[in-house]
Amino acid sequence: MSESTVIAVRAERPYDVVVGHGVLARLPGLVEGAQRVAVIHPPTLIAAAAHAGALLDRAGFEVVRVDVPDAEAAKTAEVAATCWSVLATAGFTRSDVVVGLGGGATTDLAGFVAATWLRGVGLVTVPTSVLAMVDAAVGGKTGINIAEGKNLVGSFWEPRGVLVDLDLLAGLAPSELTGGLAEVVKCGFIADPRILELIEADPDAAREPSSAVLRELIERSIRVKAEVVSRDLRESTSVGRVTGRELLNYGHTLGHAIERRERYRWRHGEAISVGMAFVAELSRQAGRLDAETAERHGTILRGLGLPTTYDAGAFDDLLAGMSVDKKTRGSTLRFVVLDRLAEASVLAGPEEELLRSAYATIAADPAG
Ligand SMILES: NC(=O)c1ccc[n+]([C@@H]2O[C@H](COP(=O)([O-])OP(=O)(O)OC[C@H]3O[C@@H](n4cnc5c(N)ncnc54)[C@H](O)[C@@H]3O)[C@@H](O)[C@H]2O)c1
Ligand SMILES: O=C(O)C(=O)C[C@@H](O)[C@H](O)[C@H](O)COP(=O)(O)O
Ligand SMILES: [Zn+2]
């Protein structure tokens, strides 16, 4: 095992995110006290799940492997109910532990199952995509989707620990890796501009699974997330400058509406990339952000191969989709906007014309 990095999350129940090669071997140490351990994973991660199972088995734990559908198809009430039945059949008690091994969709589902089974059992996350490593598996937000919108059902439930095993990235499709970089870019704009400089200096290295650049980007992004959730686990309502958890929702108001409109066939990171291009323009047109920083969004995102435009005819649908965003209060839409690099605030109740105008600048040319 090469040298690992430990990033502490100082939330209600402190835990560590361990980043490095081969750190999956630490899994048995994180489930101590359990008799049974359920490893929830998608079909694509069967080999890693088998490896995790063998490590646990050798350490004397009773392993229950739970194969769930891939990607967003796992984030449903039906799949959660199937997992509860598996736990019931296995005789899962309050001292037993759920492991979520996979991309963000799997860790969101597994977290939700752990939070709800017997009103809450231990959880360990083993993220396998860049997106889950830097974001979904860290911070204790869990959830599932319903037809009416993204992540509308869920809970805050912190893991006992997060194992970011960089070896697992070798199997990740390049397009998935790139999708995850959207959340990395988000961390750059909201908190750590060094992330943006690293990507601008070498976008190809950022997309190379075994590069030192990607490792640094992952670690920096985890630090951003760890600091924010340590300050504000439960996402308090920000007024004026945003330093709490709403900061991490930058680009997500429109992004989630796109995911819902696309029936969750778009990658989360791609939708958030468009959402950031939109909100950067909204920030500029609202008179908050300078044009250069707004344009830098598109340059960096497109440089990584991420999308920054969306269907010109979709605005009305998207506006309806944005109304169920969790930052909405009453009928007031609230956006996290940038005032300058690494400084965000809330734009509450913008005029529809302003939203339309910002959208028009990112809308795809129907002819093109
Ligand atoms: N809870 C949070 O704080 C939070 C934060 C960000 C995103 N999310 C959620 O995370 C989800 C997106 O996560 P994602 O982009 O990881 O999507 P995902 O879980 O759908 O994974 C993307 C694809 O990559 C595959 N995959 C993952 N790791 C792999 C590996 N190592 N080798 C081979 N294939 C692999 C998956 O099987 C899937 O097909 C969304 O549902 C989003 O809402 C949650
Ligand atoms: O951790 C958070 O808080 C975030 O907002 C991170 C987002 O990247 C993530 O996609 C999250 O799941 C969105 O949360 P939601 O509350 O808007 O569903
Ligand atoms: Zn996200």
UniProtKB/TrEMBL annotation:
Regions annotated as coiled coil: none
Tagged with keyword Metal-binding: yes
Source organism: Microlunatus ginsengisoli
Binding positions (NAD(+)): 70-75, 104-108, 128-129, 141, 150
Listed pathway(s): Metabolic intermediate biosynthesis; chorismate biosynthesis; chorismate from D-erythrose 4-phosphate and phosphoenolpyruvate: step 2/7
Record's function text: Catalyzes the conversion of 3-deoxy-D-arabino-heptulosonate 7-phosphate (DAHP) to dehydroquinate (DHQ).
Cofactor: NAD(+); Co(2+); Zn(2+)
Keyword Thylakoid: no
Its EC number(s): 4.2.3.4
PANTHER family with a match to the protein in the record: 3-DEHYDROQUINATE SYNTHASE, 3-DEHYDROQUINATE SYNTHASE, CHLOROPLASTIC
All copies of domain 3-dehydroquinate synthase C-terminal, residue ranges: 180-328
Catalytic activity: 7-phospho-2-dehydro-3-deoxy-D-arabino-heptonate = 3-dehydroquinate + phosphate
Residue intervals of the 3-dehydroquinate synthase N-terminal domain: 66-177
List of residues binding Zn(2+): 183, 252, 268
HAMAP family named in the record: DHQ_synthase
Name of protein: 3-dehydroquinate synthase
Signal peptide region: none
